[in-house]
Design brief:
It is a single chain. Helices cover 33% and strands 24% of the residues. The radius of gyration is 22 Å and the shape is globular. It has 442 residues and is of the alpha+beta class. The structure holds uridine-diphosphate-2(N-acetylglucosaminyl) butyric acid.
C-alpha cells in the first residue's frame, strides 16, 4: 500500500483490554530457521505483517510449501522441497531480515547467494559481523556488485567473538553452528527475548545450545534437526506501543499477554514519568493507568536488557508533551532520530545533535502531514497524532505495515479516531505535486 495514508484525529483517554500478536522479530528468524529442517512445521501466534508475507515469499521461492491462515495466526511451512540457495534480490532489498536465511542455507547446502539487504533506513547497517564470522567458519565469500556468493565444503566450529552483540549476527551464526560437528562458542552474544525464542525453537528441533553467563552461547552441533510446532512469544514492541498510546492520551490499558519480563527498563521509565504500572503473575500481563501530569525522563537505548531501540521513537513522542526536558541518546543505530524532524512539524521542541535528542515538553502538538521513515518512527507519529489538535496525515505506510499487524484497528478499538485510506486522495495528490509531501520509498 505504497500510496496509502493514515488519518488521525485527536483521541483522548484510550482505554480497554488488548490482546497481542506474536513478535515480528522472533517469527522472521524462526521462519528462516525452519530451513535447517526437512518437513512440515507449524507456527502459532504469527502476525500478518508485511515482513512476514515477504519472508513467506522468500521461502516459497526457495522451494518451501507455505500455508498461512491469517485469521487464526497459524503458519505451516513444509521445507521438504527446498532445493535452492539463491535468495530473491527484490525481497532482500525490501527486508533486512532476509540476511537471516544465510546461516541456515550454508548449513543445509554449503551455499548461499544473496544480495545486500534493505529494510528501514537506520544508517549504514552493514552486515560485516555476519560475513566476517562466516569466513571464520570456513565460508568463502565472493562479492559481485551488490551480490554475494557464499560457499563452504564443511563449516568449521570454533570460537566466534562478536565486537558488538548484534542480534542478527548472533542468530545467523547460531543457526549455522547448530548443524556443525563440534562445539561453537559465540562470545558477547545478543540475548534479546526474540533470540531466546529462536533458541527455544532450535532446542525443540533437537539442537544443543546453552547460555553461559554473562553472554556466551555454546552450541554443540548435531547431525539432524527436526520440524517443530511452536507458539511465537508475544510482541513486546506491540505491547510497548499500546502502553504508550494509553499513556500519551491519558488513558488506561490492560495487556494480559504482555511480556513484562522483557520490558523492565522501559516500564521503569514509564513509572518515572508518573504513570502507574501493574504487572501480572510471573511477570506476564501489564496494566497501565496514565498520570495526567507526566514528567519528562531521559534515557539511552542499548542492547537487551537496556532500553529497546525499537521503543525509542514512540517514547520520544511522549516526551514532547511531558513537563520538563528529556535527553534521549540512541546508541544502537547511527541514524535513528529522523522522526524528530517530523515531530517538529507537529510543534514539538526537539534539538538533535549527533545521536542525541534534547526534547523540551510543550503544551500542545498540532496535526500535520508527516512521513514515516521506519517502522518505529511510524508509531511515534501515530502516537503524536492521537493527541495533536487537528488532523494528522501520515504517509510512509509500508513501514507501519511491515512492523505491525493492523495496529490501527487495535487503537480504534481503544477509542482512537484513526483511519487507514488505501489511496492518496485528491487533496493529498495536490500536496505531492506541490512537493510539500514527497512520496516515501520503502
Ligand atoms: N551492525 C553492524 N554490522 C553487522 C550487523 C550489525 O555494524 O554486521 C550494527 C548495525 O548497523 C546496528 C547495530 O549493529 O547499528 C545493531 O544491529 P543488530 O544486528 O543488533 O540489529 P538487526 O539484527 O539488524 C534486529 C531487529 C531490529 C532491532 C535490532 C536491535 C530483526 C528483524 N530486526 O535488527 O528491529 O532494532 O535487532 O534490537 O530482528 C524493528 O523491529 O523496527 C527493527 C529495526
Amino acid at each position: 500500500m505504497k500510496n496509502a495514508y493514515l488519518q488521525i484525529e485527536q483521541s483522548l483517554e484510550l482505554s480497554g483490554d488488548v490482546s497481542l500478536v506474536g513478535a515480528k522479530n522472533a517469527v522472521l528468524v524462526i521462519m528462516s530457521s525452519l530451513l535447517l529442517t526437512s518437513g512440515k512445521s507449524r507456527l502459532k501466534n504469527v502476525p500478518a505483517s508485511a515482513d512476514v508475507l515477504h519472508m513467506i515469499r522468500l521461502l516459497e521461492e526457495l522451494g518451501a510449501q507455505v500455508t498461512f491462515v491469517q485469521d487464526e495466526h497459524i503458519l505451516e511451512i513444509d521445507t521438504l522441497g527446498v532445493n535452492k540457495w539463491q535468495v530473491n534480490p527484490d525481497i532482500m532489498k525490501k527486508m533486512r531480515a532476509s540476511i537471516l536465511v544465510m546461516g541456515p542455507l550454508l548449513a543445509r547446502f554449503g551455499r548461499a547467494d544473496i544480495a545486500m539487504p534493505g529494510g528501514c533506513v537506520l544508517g549504514a547497517r552493514p552486515i560485516d559481523y555476519h560475513l566476517k564470522n562466516f569466513a571464520k567458519m570456513g565460508v568463502k565469500i565472493q562479492e559481485e556488485g551488490h551480490f554475494l556468493h557464499a560457499q563452504v565444503d564443511e563449516l568449521i566450529p570454533g570460537k566466534i567473538v562478536l565486537e558488538y552483540p548484534s542480534v542478527g549476527a548472533t542468530e545467523n551464526i547460531m543457526m549455522a553452528a547448530a548443524l556443525v560437528k563440534g562445539t561453537t562458542r559465540i562470545i558477547n552474544a545478543a540475548l534479546e527475548p526474540e533470540l531466546l525464542d529462536l533458541i527455544a525453537v532450535l532446542k525443540k528441533m533437537g539442537a544443543q545450545i546453552t547460555i553461559d553467563p554473562p553472554a556466551m552461547l555454546v552450541i554443540d552441533g548435531v547431525d539432524e534437526l527436526l520440524p517443530i510446532t511452536h507458539e511465537i512469544i508475544s510482541d513486546r514492541l506491540e505491547a510497548g506501543s499500546l502502553l504508550l498510546a494509553a499513556a500519551i492520551t491519558g488513558g488506561e490499558v490492560n495487556l494480559p499477554q504482555a511480556p513484562a519480563y522483557a520490558l523492565d527498563v522501559f516500564l521503569l521509565k514509564l513509572e518515572e514519568m508518573g504513570h502507574s504500572i501493574t504487572v501480572g503473575k510471573n511477570d506476564v500481563g501489564i496494566h497501565l493507568k496514565a498520570t495526567d501530569s507526566p514528567h519528562a525522563v531521559s534515557f539511552k537505548t542499548g542492547p537487551y536488557p537496556g532500553f529497546p531501540t525499537d521503543l525509542q521513537a514512540p517514547m520520544m513522542a511522549l516526551q514532547c508533551l511531558a513537563e520538563g526536558t528529556s535527553t534521549i541518546e540512541e546508541t544502537v543505530f547511527e541514524n535513528r532520530l529522523v522522526h524528530a524532524h517530523e515531530l517538529q512539524k507537529m510543534g514539538a521542541q526537539i534539538n538533535v545533535e549527533g545521536n542525541k535528542a534534547l526534547v523540551t515538553g510543550v503544551e500542545e502538538l498540532y496535526g500535520a502531514h508527516v512521513i514515516a521513515s521506519d517502522i518505529r518512527a511510524s508509531c511515534a507519529l501515530v502516537l503524536a497524532g492521537l493527541v495533536a489538535k487537528g488532523t494528522t496525515i501520515m504517509t510512509g505506510i509500508p513501514h507501519w505495515q511491515r512492523g505491525y499487524e493492523a495496529l490501527e484497528k487495535k487503537l480504534a478499538a481503544l477509542g482512537a479516531n484513526i483511519r487507514l485510506h488505501a489511496q492518496v486522495n485528491r487533496h493529498l495528490k495536490f500536496l505531492h505535486r506541490e512537493g510539500e509531501m514527497p512520496t516515501q520509498d520503502v
